[in-house]
Amino acid sequence: MNQGSGKKVQEHSTRRLLPSLLSSLLALGLHAGVAHAAPAPTEASAESAPADPAHDPAALTAEAPAPLPAGAYQYEISLRELGARFPIRLAGVDSSNTVRFSTRADEELLGARLKMDYAYSPSLITELSHLKVLVNDEVTSTLALPKEEAGSQVSKEVELPPKLVRDYNRLNLQLIAHYTMECEDPLHSSLWANVSNDTKLALTVAPIEMPNDLAILPRPFFDARDVRRLKLPFVFAATPDNATLEAAGTLSSWFGALAGFRGAQFSAHVNAIPAQGSAIVLLTGGQRLAGVDAGDITGPTLQMVANPNDPYGKLLLVRGRNAEELKTAAAAVSLGTQTLTGERATITKLEPRAARRPYDAPNWLRSDRPVRFGELVATQDLNVAGYRPDVVNVDLRLPPDLFAWRDKHIPINLKYRYTPRPAADQSTLNVQVEGQFLRSLPLLPETTGAYRRLHAPLSEAEELIMMPVSLAGAHSTLQFLYFYDYVKQGECRDVIIDNVRGAIEPDSTIDISGFSHYLAMPDLSAYARSGFPFTRLADLAETAVVMPDGAGELDLAAYLTLMGRLGESTGYPGTAVTVTQAANVQAVADKDLLVIDSGKQPLTREWRERMPANLAGESHGFSISDLMARSFGWLSPDPREREVKTRAEIAQQTRGASNLLTGFESPLKRGRSVVVVSASNPDGLEAVTTALMQDRYSGSRISGSVSLVRDNQVTSLTGEHTYYVGSLTIVESLYWFFSRHPVLLLLLGLVSVVLLAVVVYFALRARAKQRLQA
């Protein structure tokens, strides 16, 4: 049959079926009308009638959720954790904002939902306005903006199809908004929507079995795609000795450096493998763990095996025939992960690296030369687009002991580009430090002589900005905000063209090489935020950790977590840290001491008179000063303002729990520092380490010489004694000395005047004598 005859048959069949279809539809309409006119059933009959799932719409739509496969679980991440520091504001006819998220390599995504909290303008036209949710530029949902919910907080859940989610993803929120059916201002103030950064992304995932291959390190123990806090167990076959703890400290500081902003928390297990997940196992000599068949070794050895308690978990075995080989194996993991491969590797050679120099931590701003912005931020993150673009953030980690007396400034050579303005207007580039205004730079029109670049798509400019050190802390963020003035063309002629761009040049520099390093101590804020003074050397070569005698699992966990915090600060593993006990503390007198005390540390009793606070059994003693009334002094660049006299000494007998951070000068050597992490019982150590991780981004609640941690609250005090670490130039030393001793400066001035007068007197007398003799 040819195509033409087939078409005729189809048309004939349609004509025959059309009357029957119309009659059927008419019958259904009459039936629906009868049903609508029928009296409603009484309440009694409704209760007595059995439920019929076939005729119950609720029963048809309410399907039971499918059970999750074995090992699957759900977790939530807020937009704040994904980098949205503030609520997302969408303004204008067509505006959008992007948040990035990722999924772990060892997990399969089963489902994703966005639990949104948002509000929008009451002036929007419902029929024309909506909020779009996109994943990787694919629309997943469109939310209507009805009048009855306008102006109030709205909560809705949006399903994100797993097929659209990849390893690294862009979650985009786009507002399409209109307030009139006629000509409108595309940037009218009534066109807005706010999405809370407490909005949560809920992910359902199932674990994937990974190969036993050292080449995938640091996965699965740490995955850079996971923005959650790293929680990693360490396993010891027996109570570890100091050398084993030094190797474990190298590894935990390395993982802490990898975790970065996420934070890292470690637990310790003696002769017990975790029931679930992955763990690090350290074995020396002939030590073995039940269920783990590791075989014999011939040198420092690394091996990845399955967790016998969890088919999806892995164990990284770090082994050595003696303590030195164990430390070599740990250093090989932390320094040479990229070269490892296979299920098992024996380290035959590990050349020691050159000794670290002070202040050369990879995460810290270099002190020996200007630093390019391109070294601190990826180039693509320095570019923005649109009339209301995102903020360009440049994170800075400054050494906390920069000597900035008399408010010395940090020079920033800023180079930037922008779409040339058609005429002079109010467009600016605003520069801020941690939200504090610094400078406002005008974005000039293309025809302005100094800024004109022939045939250049963007105007280029350069500016020297002097940033006060008082605005910059140990952790600071330079913020660059482009504000483009929108010039209105007239009624019905205003159209936004997406051709506005801005960029901060990667060749822009910041320079702290002209600063000396000198700081008044004790200063627990420097320790809480930067690990100072221990992190002065990135490999912790001048750091000794004094463990309590008979340390238990909670003491070991506190040690590992504290080492992770130091690694997070420097970005480098603590390969040269020393671990000791109170009995051998004299051997490390020339080091800065980090003392862990859970009620069993002899040094806290021995050094009680030198400490501004102490926990000794049920006896708790504190020195109280004016820190709370003069807290600004601890933020001042002038170290003199840190000298706050003690106003009271308080001692008490109590059975209550107390958790402290205490700083003071080492009784063993002048200029060296001691930080004591103490708790009245081992459980309290976790409260202190948690407070340290929270303090990293919540502001310096930990400060002074004593910080009391209780119920997630931190109270800071300061003692009387002040000492200094670091050094100054000869000129700075003289200025600093006489600024602290003005009376001596006055006396020296008077003596100088008298001496000058005497010299002038005898010179004039000699001159007069010569003239008389002539």
From TrEMBL:
Binds the cellulose synthase activator, bis-(3'-5') cyclic diguanylic acid (c-di-GMP). Tightly associated with the cellulose synthase catalytic subunit. The keyword Iron does not apply. Its main location: membrane. Belongs to the AcsB/BcsB family. Residues 1-37 form the signal peptide. This is Cyclic di-GMP-binding protein. It is found in: Cell inner membrane. InterPro entries: Cell_synth_B (IPR003920), Cell_synthase_bac (IPR018513). GO terms for biological process: cellulose biosynthetic process; UDP-alpha-D-glucose metabolic process. Residues 39-59 are annotated as: Disordered. It is a single-pass membrane protein. PANTHER family: CYCLIC DI-GMP-BINDING PROTEIN. The chain crosses the membrane at residues 743-764. Pathway: Glycan metabolism; bacterial cellulose biosynthesis. One of its GO terms (cellular component) is plasma membrane. Keywords: c-di-GMP, Cell inner membrane, Cell membrane, Cellulose biosynthesis, Membrane, Signal, Transmembrane, Transmembrane helix. It comes from Orrella dioscoreae. It comes from the Bacteria.
